[in-house]
Please model this.
Amino acid sequence: MGHLPLMFLVFLLWAAEGVVISNKESSGLETCRDFGNAFDRIYTVPGDATQLECSLDISLLFDSETTPYNITWYDQRTGSEITEVKDRIILRDNRLWFFNINSKHQGSYICVVRTPSECYKQATVLVVEEITSELCKISQASIQKVSAGLTELLACPLRSYSRRVDSFSFQWYKNCEKLQEDQKFVPKNDILIIRDILFEDAGFYTCKMNFTLAGVVGEMAENINCEVIDEYLKKPEMVEPINEVIKVDRGSPFMKHCRVFVAGNGIHMVEVIWKVSNGSAEEFISKNTADRIHQQLIIEILEDDGIWLIRSLWVSEVSEDDFNQTFICMAFSSRGTLTGQFTLFPADPNFLLPLGLVLGSLALLFIIGALLWRSFKVELILWVRKMFPFFYKTTDGDGKQYDAYVAYPRVLEGSSEMAEIFAMSTLPQVLEGQYGYKLFILGRDSLPGEAVVDVVQDALSRCRRLLLLYTASSLCSPEALEWAEQQTGLHRALLEKTIGIVLLEIEEIRDASQLPESVRLIREKQGALQAWKRRKRWMLWDRNSEDCRSSLNPSARFWREVHYHMPVRGKAKKSNVWFGF
Model:
């Protein structure tokens, strides 16, 4: 009995010590700023493993780079700190790992963050659920969407845990049945590839990770609620630019479009942006439109089979620094990143413009020269004959006595009288008086009583040209034809062209079909010199107001044309080169 008071005293001291220790622990947590329970609960099932991570966002509490801190964990049910491996709980890198979970592990666990001057705490709730045959595992599942008709993938929510363990492996299940690789499903560790997705591919998928940590083996699983949607967008396609080399002139403006096509229907999540690389460094191009080099806003063009995204690169003035630089267009999407690029080089010297100017000038000069030649051919050739007579052979010693034989019909009154006046008076005055030619005119140079046929044949053989004068009616009548037949030599000269023939029209011929065939053929081939024709000097020129006797006083151009067709009186000997204008 004497020992009873002593034992009672020891018990009281032990109880008091426990109360003090418990108060110290609770008082330490009571001084911390309490953020209550974390919004997200951690769900698991018996036999699985899971991880608790401190839910406090330290970056919002203090500067973790300059302020020292530590993290501790407490079991809210007991108030005791978790410091070592106990009841299959491992503390690593400030995270709690639970192995072979059972219902005793369910509860709240407090994460405490301490600095030299502050203390913060927040509780995370761990929920242990019973397994249901419908879902195989926990009732909570993440939702992932895939598009019908495409090949897409499911990502396991446990993939971040695989980087924190010593070793791991994954298995995939659909509706509790393990998936093997086939033409439809391709498991690749923490992702599951589903080919040619159909609507019946929707459902619950489970990914299980087996791992080891600190020599302890565990497994954990997560469910994915896979939804198949009809609206989808395929992987973007970079249409422009594609590894191009572009040559531009320095100082010129330049624009290049980046064109990306996204096939399908739905809302795209594609960002298009330009950057420049000079070999050693890369930088994104400014979006400020005031800068010399900038990228403009994205233009979206919706079509039936997809959407076009166009973003233009604008260079207001190309400088020397822009050459040999590579401009890259990047298209960011959830399906990957696409790039297209081009490089600027200085343009080659442009010879096309000066060559075009030279050819155009030559063509213009040719056209002008052709027009001038057509308009002033006669004047030019006459000038050359006059200035350079030694280019042409002399007519001396060619066996000819006369330069031209003048023939005209002397049959009808009126018109024949006009032709006779022109042949006997006007023509000799100019050709003989001014130009010094020697003419043979029948009736003037022939002797009376000689036979006409003999005179014509003999005279034509001694003449270098035949000048045939006619009026509107002088060769268009039976009498004119009879006159031409009487002069057999003249007729033969017209048909056989044994002598150079020049037709002189004294009056306008309106119906050339009435002319003798030989004359008509010569007229159609080489034309006729028209003494009656005058140039129109005024817009209101009236041909009917002209003097009916104008044919007896032709224009100066008419005489130049007659002079042009007459024999050339050159000074070069016959053995010299003859240019033959």
